[in-house]
Amino acid sequence: MCQEQCSLNVAAHSVVCDDLGVTAPSIRARVRAEMVTQIKRTARAHLAQDGANLSLRAVARDLGLASSALYRYFASRDDLLTALIVDGYNALGTVVELSQVGLPRADLMARWLAVGTAVRTWALINPADYALLYGSPVPGYEAPADTVGPATRIPRVLAEILADGVRSGSVAVRPGERLPKAVRADLRRLRTSAFPDVPEPLLGRGLIAWTALFGAVSFELFGHYHNVVDDYGAFFEHQMRALATFVGITRAEG
Fold first, then answer.
1. Strand (E) or helix (H) holding 6
2. Are 133 and 92 in contact (CB under 8 A)?
3. CA distance 112 to 133
4. 15-34 per-position pLDDT tens digit
């Protein structure tokens, strides 16, 4: 409540508190944001326990709300899933982008390894969020366009590393490197729309490496290396260095 005199702002249909300058709509917005945060936190707990089988009814029950009350914040289960997916991509994207801070721009290998380490570390700390992003598709759910921008933050960092290699001359298209016609068409479209500074053959290698990175993390996280690999960290670094060599990053520059 306002401690000083409050006046009714008829034009704005809100109560203005003279001491704090806080309006009723701003208070409602803050309360709504806090409730949305609680809903998503509870939903993440359910994902960790039950996988992608998310129930709005169960989330509402844990929050002490009627199911109908939850629909004031998320119109459907899919809307809540989308919010969690966008949050996950943005969280991972931020971690990957921050992994480049302080590294010499010319040291492509260090930057490449930092990206892989950031993805792996985030996945191990947030396995349920990683599974929602890169695990089995949720039955009946189709990701909307809202997820595309956040999802591309990680490949954009990898593509920027390759673009810097092209600009410095340390990473290049290999003599005689050819692409199947259909693959070249796909990569040309991808280059035109998103990665203009990376030639198609190099972009193709980068795309293979990007999928291999997440395949490596998924194999470790979901137990596919059990009884095969003992030192996951050492094997992962070996994979990342091998992928760097495949792409064309073979040494630190500068």
1. strand 6-9
2. yes
3. 21
4. 334 445 556 678 888 888 99
